[in-house]
Design goal:
By secondary structure, the protein is α+β, with helices and mostly antiparallel strands. Among the domains are: 4-89, Phosphatidylinositol 3-kinase Catalytic Subunit, Chain A, domain 1 (Ubiquitin-like (UB roll), Roll), CATH 3.10.20.90; 152-221, SH3 type barrels. 15% of the residues lie in helices and 25% in strands. The protein contains 5 helices and 12 strands. The strands form 3 sheets. Strands 2-1-5-3-4 form a 5-stranded mixed sheet, covered by helices on one side. A 5-stranded antiparallel sheet has the order 11-8-7-6-12, with no helix packed on it. The longest helix has 12 residues, at 26-37. It is rod-shaped and about 125 Å long. GO terms for molecular function: alpha-tubulin binding; microtubule plus-end binding. Belongs to the TBCB family. Residues 5-88 form the Ubiquitin-like domain. Residues 178-215 form the CAP-Gly domain. Keywords: Chaperone, Cytoplasm.
């Protein structure tokens, strides 16, 4: 008898591949198996299986004085180590999750915590707490408008012979309208509708009743001189 043998060691809490000297006595083997399986030497009952799920026991290592080679083991057989007194060594309880007390937190308690993922997302405006842009503005591309601020202009009107002239002071989207571009104009005469602000939001500065907002298609830019004109009520 000489050499070593490679076997699988199986217990309620462990499974591993091990190599043992065939000269080891079963008593010495049990000392090594206690370190592997956690089962005390006096509690060990060692069966030999041909494979792990084999229902038939090929042998029993029941004589502590006999060497391992006495039992004619073959490589890759299984040493099934059982605990004859598991209540004293807690064998099998490491793999029994049914005995583990679960930590549960109610929804209301979770929302009160200051160290939760929920609070982190709220503070940093992530996920569903991110700031939402105006859906209409974000879903539509604003048209390009070539009306430089500061240029002279004339506003189209339906009244024949009437010219409304002024200076472009603002071009862009506004809060008083859900979509599109508006042009803010400071008229030469006090026939406007505002002072450059609408609904409490200021877009440019001008005297009261000199400001007006119109759509870009109603604006003609050019070298228009100042002209006295009458008021019109078609603009915003």
């Amino acid at each position: 008898m000489s050499g070593t043998i490679t076997v699988f060691v199986k217990s309620p809490d462990t499974r591993s591949e091990r190599r043992f000297d065939l000269h080891l006595t079963i008593g010495q083997l049990k000392g090594k198996l206690e370190l592997i399986t956690g089962i005390p030497v006096p509690n060990q009952a060692i069966s030999v299986l041909n494979f792990e799920t084999d229902a038939q026991v090929a042998g029993v290592l029941d004589d502590d004085s006999k060497p391992l080679g006495f039992y004619g083991l073959r490589d890759h057989q299984v040493l099934d180590v059982m605990d004859t007194n598991p209540s004293s060594s807690f064998t099998g309880q490491l793999s029994d999750v049914s005995q583990v007390q679960k930590f549960e937190l109610s929804e209301s308690e979770y929302q009160k915590r200051q160290d939760s993922v929920l609070i982190y997302k709220q503070r940093h405006k992530l996920g569903r707490f991110a700031e939402k842009k105006d859906e209409e503005t974000s879903s539509q591309l604003l048209p390009e408008v070539n009306i430089p601020i500061g240029t002279r202009c004339e506003v189209e009107t339906s009244e024949e012979g009437l010219h409304k002239r002024g200076t472009v002071r603002f071009v862009g989207p506004t809060k008083f309208a859900k979509s599109g571009i508006w042009v803010g104009i400071e008229y030469d005469e006090p026939f406007g509708k505002n002072d450059g602000s609408v609904q409490g939001e200021r877009y440019f500065e001008c005297r009261p009743n000199y400001g007006v907002f119109v759509r870009p298609e109603k604006v003609i830019t050019g070298d228009f001189p100042v002209e006295d004109i009458n008021m019109d009520d078609e603009e915003i």
